Amino acid sequence: MTSDERLPVKRTAKLFIGGKFPRSESGRSYEVLADDGRPLGYAAQASRKDLRDAVVAARAAQPGWAGMTAFNRGQILYRVAELMEGRREQFRAELSDAGVADPDRGVDAAIDRWVWYAGWCDKVHQALGSTNPVAGPYFNFTIPEPTGVVGVIAPGDRSLLGLVSRLAPAIVGGTTVVAVASETTPLPAVSLAEVLATSDVPGGVVNLLTGKTRELVPWLAGHMDVNAIDVTGVPEDLLQEVEQLAAENVKRIHAARDVDPFASAAQSPYEITALMEFKTVWHPMGA
Amino acid sequence: MSQSAEIQPSDRRPVLSGGAEAHRLVMHAVAVDAVGLEERAASLAKRSIKKSSKLWALDLAIRCMDLTTLEGTDTTGKIVAMCSKAVRPDPIDPSIPSVAAVCLYPQLVPVAVEQLEGTGVHVASVAGAFPSGLGPLDARLREIAEVVELGADEVDIVLNRSLFLGGRYAQAYDEIVASREAAGSAHLKVILETGELGSYDRIRQASMLAMAAGADFIKTSTGKISVGATLPSALCMMEAARDFHRQTGVEVGIKVAGGVRKSKQSIQYLTILYETLGARWMTPDRFRIGASTLLNDVLMQIDKERTGRYQGRDYFTVD
Amino acid sequence: MSEAIQPTVQWEYAPAPESTEVVRLEETYGLFINGEFVEPKSGKRYVTINPATEEPLAQVAEAGPEDVALAVDAARDASEGRWRQMPGSERAKYLYRIARQLQERAREFAVLETLNGGKPIKEARDIDIPLSAAHFFYYAGWADKLEYAFPGRSVHPIGVAGQIIPWNFPLMMAAWKLAPALATGNTVVLKPAETTPLTALLLAQVIQEAELPPGVVNIVTGAGDTGGALVDASVDKIAFTGSTEVGKRIRRSIAGSGKRLTLELGGKGANIVFEDAPLDQAVEGVVNGIFFNQGHVCCAGSRLLVQEPVFDALIEKLKARLQTLRVGDPLDKNTDVGAINSRAQLEKIEELVAHGVDEGAEIYQPECVLPDRGFWFRPTLFTGVSQSHRIAREEIFGPVLSILTFRTPEEAVEKANNTPFGLSAGVWTEKGSRILWMAERLRAGVVWANTFNRFDPASPFGGYKESGFGREGGLHGLEPYLQLEPVDA
Question: Is B278 touching A (CB cutoff 8 A)?
Answer without folding.
Answer: no
